[in-house]
Description:
Elements: H1 7-23, H2 29-35, H3 42-54, E1 58-59, E2 68-69, H4 71-81, H5 86-99, H6 107-122, E3 125-129, E4 138-147, E5 150-157, E6 162-168, H7 180-198, H8 222-237, E7 244-247, H9 249-252, H10 261-273, H11 275-282, E8 297-300, E9 312-321, E10 324-334, H12 339-357
Antiparallel strand pairs: 1-2, 3-7, 3-10, 4-5, 5-6, 8-9, 9-10
Amino acid sequence: MQVQLTNRQQHILWATVRHYIATAEPVGSKTLLEEYNLGVSSATIRNVMGVLEKAGLLYQPHTSAGRIPSDSGYRIYVDQLITPNEVLTSQVEQALQKRLKCEDWSLEALLHGAAQILATLSGCVTLITMPQNTTAVLRHLQMVQIEAGKVMLIVVTDGYETHSMVLDVPSRGDGNKLDVELIDRELQIVSNFLNSHLRGKSLLELANLDWTELDREFQYYGEFLKTSLAEISRRSFTSGNTQIMVRGVSEVLRQPEFSQLQQVQTIIQLLEEEQEQLWRLIFEEPEAEEAGKQKVTIRIGAENILEPIRSCSLISSTYRRGAIALGSVGVLGPTRLDYESAIAVVSAAAEYLSEAFS
């Protein structure tokens, strides 16, 4: 959402969000005047809040009440009005290192311990996905023509797990229809080439073949195979362990936003019985990150696709072994969240777990 705010509007939006995060109470212009050094009159603050309301960044829960931030208001606050709390990030990393000595812990105990520390520090529900199996390597690959214009790509791993896809044979662009037997021979040649180059490689490396090594007559298979093998890699990666460690439920459910029993029940059901849905949300397909930076994903309110948590904010990041994403760590809480602290906690935990797994 692109909203251009003046410095004054930004300052008043920032103050409104900060007050609501701290108190869970709608805020009016007099309160902001008393609590924040805004340098303007109560009437000016009231007029600016009216402008912010018209822009969809604030709203009144009741006609006689003050204003509170909308999901869009929180988004502007997170994207434009705060900076990462590097001091807190460092403190969290030190706390994890002090309380969790990874050489003394089993994998599961390490993740359980990290989840409990994060829940305590953030006051939110902490979610840590179990690491994915990244050791599976390719044993055999075969491309088989199953009908005119259709090919099945079959990948077998060292554990004899099979992944397959049905694909459309790419057009050569010359309009000529190839002989079925010729296509079979070409597919066998390409399969042999791929096996010689990919056998023994991790499934996560399948999309990294140097396609310039293909003979010129088979070059038109290049983009077709690159896309297909990347999809096989993605499918194998996301078909593994979807277990999520959950901590801190009792703490966050004391927040006033979760006073309705039905809402609490749907969230708990999601956390306990529908983890696969939540896993797909918290553990996105891995993306490249800027060197030296831990990428943090922030979903606010309705940005969450799962209905039970559309009144919540979910902050997550991946932990890695080198360049390979193993799992995710995240916190779930009300949209009235201390975002600076939550982002710092998640970033520090992901960094710590990455170091531990490396």
